[in-house]
Design brief:
This protein is of the alpha+beta class. The protein has nine helices and 20 strands. It folds into two domains: about 230 residues, 3-Layer(aba) Sandwich (Rossmann fold), CATH 3.40.50.300; about 110 residues, OB fold (Dihydrolipoamide Acetyltransferase, E2P) (Beta Barrel), CATH 2.40.50.100.
Length: about 350
Amino acid sequence: MEALKLVDLHKSYSQTRALDGVSFRVESGEIVAVLGPSGCGKSTLLATIAGLEQPDQGEVFWNGSSLSDLSPHRRGFGLMFQELALFPHMTVYQNIAFGLQMAGMDKPAIRKRVQRMLDLVGLPEFGPRDIHTLSGGEQQRVALARSLAPQPKLLMLDEPLGSTDRTLRERLILDLRIILHRIKQTAIIVTHDQEEAFALADRVVVMNEGKVAQIGTPQDIYRKPASLFVARFLGLDNIISAKSQQVGAQLMAETTIGQFPIDHQVKGKFKLLLRPDKLQLGKAGPCQIKGTVIERSFRGSICQTVIEVNRLRFRFDFPSSTPIPPESDSITLSFDPQQALQVFP
Ligand code: ADP
């Protein structure tokens, strides 16, 4: 069921088009990430949904009704962001209860709700604790409990895990996803961090210069970026120039590192992406390239390897168990062009 619908949102600040025709929908209970580089319009989009900014054009709908005339606090949306610090002089209980008291809820109901929230975020005994006695991860959970306590129709998260350290972040991302799904919370998360967006969201909206560049599941977007911008933004940067050439019945991509068959109907010059994870060591695949190992970098389950082929450098990811030759040695890689190549006309 559709919950939030954005229709053709435009917003400019003097010369800057912060939003330039943004439309998408969020289903009830769905987690959608808005992902894009700094300045692409993410915060403006969030402020427009919240009602803190008025769009120059376009409309925000909730359950089919326009929110244009509804002030921010009457929209019933919640916001959680990194800088929205917990009140340091209050206990955990008081922090979570704060919004409920402001809303005029009676004491027994508040007590019940706060306890439910503490249970939900896995801190059932933490009510009496002072904020300064909590670890970073515990503070994040309390902040989440506080945002969820008033039962917002839509929870908006702005770079929620911004500065937390990597290990903690990975755990919190997964916990956050489990918690939001458990209560079927409709949520929009805004982030410039691809990993955060991909790991948290059911669907991702990639933005660039105030426009939607691509919408899809994380898998769809990673497998088939819709443009060079999206590919590069996702770190898929093995991109080379190519020219099409018909060889018998087969269309070929002619490049400085070799000639490869392509399915895509394309004429003249275009760009070709070599997916970093679709090449293998050795000559087994139908297409081959030969190069020199420049750098190997161990990343746990994968080994990131920089390889130079005909003066161009590429980054490939191999399973860590792959016996990559040492730096400066030559290397032969092979691939299936249907899996490893993507054409950008
Ligand atoms: P993001 O959150 O993706 O970093 P923003 O929505 O903050 O992007 O900004 C989008 C563009 O609009 C940027 O170029 C920014 O400088 C501009 N912008 C945002 N808010 C204002 C404002 N209040 N006044 C002038 N320009 C603004």
